[in-house]
Amino acid sequence: MRHRAFALTLFAIMLLSGFLGVSTHQSSPQAETKPQLKISSDLPSGTNLSRVEWRADHNPNHGFESWTTPHVPAELNTYRSTDEYRWYAENPWPVNEGSKSMGVQARAIDPEHPSQAELKQSTQVSQDNPVNLTLDFDYYIYQNLNPDTDYFYLHLELKWSGTRHLYYYLSGVDDSVTNSTSYRYFIMNQTQDTWLSFDRNITEDFFAAFGNYPEYQNIMEFILFSETSSYTRVFVDDLNLVNGTNKIVSGSTNNGNFEGGGGWFISNREAGDVARTDINKEGDYALNATVASSGNISQARFSFRTDRRLTASNQDEFRFWWRIHEYQGSSNYTYAYIHVSCSNATEEFSIFYMLAQGLESPVDGYSHVIQIQPAGFNTTDTWTYFNRSIWDDVTSYNETSELFVEEIEFRMYTSHKYSRLSMLFDDMILESAALNDRGYEDQPGVGEEIRAWSIPDTEPYFTVTDDALNGDKAANLTIQNGDSYYGDQEGAYRPINNETDTYLEVSWKLETFTSQVDEMVHIIIEFANNKEYAYVFANGSDPTGGEGVDDYIILPNGNTIGQWFTMQRNIAEDYELLFGSAPETAIDRVNLQGYSETGGTVEILFDDVYLYNDAAPEISELIYAPSSPEVNDPVQVNASVYDLGTDTVKLHYRVDSGDWNTIIMTDLGDTKYTGSIPGQAFDTVVEFYVSANDTSGKSTTLLDDSDYFSYTVTDTIAPEVEIVAPNEGDTVSDSVQINITANDSGSGIDRVEIYMDNTSLTNLTSEPFLYSWNTTTVADGEYNLTVRAYDEAGNYAEAQVSVSVENDATTTTTTTTTATTTTTTTTTTTETTTTTTTTPPPDFTLVAIIIAATVAIVIIVIALYQKQQKS
Question: Rounded to whole angstroms, how far apart are CA atoms 651 and 702?
């Protein structure tokens, strides 16, 4: 019970102090705390493979978009059979003697791929000591619509003090040829549509041309050459090649009269084609390969060399769109496939991706062959996406730790009568590391030859070492005593211009260098426009003009021995630096060369060798402070920006969805940038983001996820308030003016509240903050005047003064007290007020009421306690 009484007493005291405790203080509304935003990511140190494009497309004609002519795809090797035909002609074809002649015809698909039909003996005839070699035959020019480009001629090869050639033009003339000490040209009768006779003493023609008689006759052949798409057609009959009395070819001897079935080599072909088409899946063009046959062989092929080394850590992606556009006369003799030639150090592998074929595969029975029928096999008129890995396909059937992809060939073939096969290919990509080196971690064991730049040598100079900058392996190039090293890799025609941002990165350590005059180690970049320059790691003298390059850059720290260095060179920028203009070309090859002198030694280590495209700038670690700024406080924005060629970093901001403002951020070094957003008014919403662009024109924008960063300007600082009058302790009477000053530099003053003790007198909402207090409405005595100033954010501050109210008056007071009623009469010179009441007078303040209530509670508690003690 004692504890209960104490608790009640304490409660009463606390209740009293809660009402009576009056002091000057300030408070703020509860504000939501916004945490600082920090976006982090690992920045590259050397090569960050997750950031840069270290893989490249090794199809030199990227997407089949580059064409020299509509029938010549740039940078690809192509072959197509041409339309050439030889036959034993009978009536109604022209025949001059007997029942048969020999017909020859040819035409081209396009001028870049002329057709050439040859007519010659199955076994080439020859003659020693041709002292009186004569040749006669009949010929008929059936059609030659373009004698300036299409020719029919006889070629004879004879020897005297070397090889000499006689050419007899029977139709058409090649204006580009001229007589010389080894070549002599004769223009014969070329009348068309009639039989003509050729009758020459070859021995005498040779003497007239070269001043000596021939010692040996070697070759006789007829050539029909055509650059145009219209047929050129000729006939030959009754041929006699005689040396004195020796009939070499004549009559039935070697079928000189063309009446038999042998003696002459006949191999007919029909045209295939590789051409550009706008029936495509991507870009502007696709590649069309078509073969067609009326019973003769028709072929079309295109290919490219890659020399790419694949491993488990450098696997490839081989992908493209393809479509069988036409497929007529399907048989075992009409097919299309992709042949990938691969090898490792000891074995060769071949993959055949069969795209179209008859019941039997054309490569059945081949050894070391993998046959795969990909999706879309034998399906016509449908684009199919080929997406495979050569590495996966080979290692699914063979165990190997490496795979050199040497060449990829696409072949279309038909010899089936009345057949036609037309294939479309588009957007072809073979992707793997741009250079085979990388970090050398997937190379063979220490001491073995590096498998990156060239075919293994029996005396290797370029070997694996465990003295590495990173990882466990690096490359050691050691050449001595006049030896030299040359290795190269395909550049795959990687585009180079002022937008590609392509870098060559190499780490190196020069171990030994005797610095003799012609000793050197450098990497040469060869371009498709036939320019080249070198990065020089070590040189014994000025390399100008001595190494066969157009220009060079001697690297900082070149020739320094015993320390690792790393270069990161922008190839386009170096090109422009050396040649004076921005490049618009492609990388053809990358060469590594080293030279030593007699008695000298050059030993250099390489690690982390990459050719890559730098990505757009990477913006990270964005921090802004304060995250909830006060009014007019600037906000500092810091960010990390990584790029090998950063140009500018910008801070963009706007206020309350207005226009954007841009600030160039200051480079603090070490990839750090800073900028400041000016202070703003209360409750302003500020949105911002950071952008960065590099010297190649690539840009990055950093947002807060998918939105702008933002903050709202807050006000947590209370106003300043002061009671100017009355002053503390003043005695006041009648009407007194309360004068208040209130200021707020943040959100501004909202209102000022005035209290007499705890009774509200008024609220003021605008300056001047003045109030006339009529003191005659209260009894004389001590009073606390309290003012409370609020700002727009809800913060407030208080000020208080105590004053005495004394109003001058003549007063007569009669008081009669009974048990139930109190009567008070007050008289003044100005007015008389008489009040009779059974309740406390109106000037009995709230404070007095609270005190009385509290005392009563205490008395009751004590009485209850005493009663409990007695009981």
Answer: 10
Over residues 394-451, the pLDDT tens digits come to 999 999 999 999 999 999 999 999 999 999 999 999 999 999 999 999 999 999 999 9
| Omega within 30 of 0 (cis) for the link into 726 | yes
Burial label for 568, CB within 10 Å (0-12, 13-18, 19+), is middle
Does residue 831 surpass a pLDDT of 50? Answer: no
Q: What radius of gyration, in Å, describes the C-alpha atoms of the chain?
A: 51
Residue 37 tokens read as: 């935003």
In CATH, the architecture of 716-805 is Sandwich (2.60)
CB contact at 8 A, 498 and 585: no
Question: Tokens representing 354?
Answer: 């069969």
Question: What's the sign of the alpha-carbon dihedral 68, 71, 76, 81?
Answer: negative
Residue 514 has pLDDT above 60, yes or no: yes
Looking at the chain, which residues constitute the CATH 2.60.40.10 domain(s)? 618-712, 716-805
Strands 369-372 and 133-143: unpaired
- Say what the pLDDT of residue 549 is: 87
- Please state whether beta strands 348-356 and 474-480 pair in parallel, antiparallel, or not at all (unpaired): unpaired
Q: Does domain 83-270 have CATH number 2.60.120?
A: yes
Reported as a pLDDT band with limits 50, 70 and 90, residue 365 is confident
| Per-residue model confidence (pLDDT) at position 815 | 39
Contacts of 835 (CB under 8 A, 6+ apart): 824, 841, 842
Of 410, 424, 421, 328, nearest to 382 (Cα)? 424
Tell me: the pLDDT tens digits for 276-293? Answer: 999 999 999 999 999 999
Classify each residue of 100-119 as buried b or exposed e, where b means 16 or more C-beta atoms within 10 Å of its C-beta: bbbbbbbbbbbeebbbebbb
Averaged over 441-462, what is the pLDDT? 84
Please tell me the predicted confidence (pLDDT) of residue 10: 35
Task: Retrieve residue 60's tokens.
Answer: 């030199």
- Per the prediction, the chain carries an average pLDDT of 87
Cα(12)–Cα(52) distance, integer angstroms? 75
Can you tell me the mean pLDDT for 828-852?
Answer: 42
pTM above the 0.85 mark? no
Cα separation, 690 vs 637, whole angstroms: 9
**Residues 73-126: tens digit of each pLDDT:** 999 999 999 999 999 999 999 999 999 999 999 999 888 899 999 999 998 888
Q: Is 673 exposed, middle or buried (0-12, 13-18, 19+ CB in 10 A)?
A: buried
**What is the maximum alpha-carbon separation in the chain?**
181
CATH 2.60.120 domain span(s) along the chain: 83-270, 272-432, 462-613
As a CATH number, domain 462-613 is: 2.60.120
- Asked if the 618-712 domain carries CATH number 3.40.640.10, the reply is no
DSSP string, 321-384: EEEEEEEES-STTEEEEEEEEEE-SS-EEEEEEEEE--SS-TTTT-TTEEEE--TTTT-BS--E
Mean pLDDT computed over 177-205: 97
Instruction: Mention every residue, 6+ apart, whose C-beta is less than 8 A from residue 112.
Output: 68, 69, 71, 72
Separation CA 224–CA 232 (nearest Å): 8
pLDDT of residue 541: 77
| Structure tokens given for 149 | 């480009």
**Integer Cα distance of 11 and 444 in angstroms:** 87
Say yes or no to pLDDT of 223 above 80.
yes
pLDDT computed for residue 821 by the predictor: 36
The answer, yes or no, to whether residue 822 has pLDDT greater than 80, is no
Q: How far is CA 629 from CA 39, 632, 712, in A?
A: 20, 8, 7
Contact 597, 517 (CB under 8 A): yes
The token pair that represents 258 in the structure block: 């063309």
- The third-level CATH classification (topology) of the domain covering 272-432 is Jelly Rolls (2.60.120)
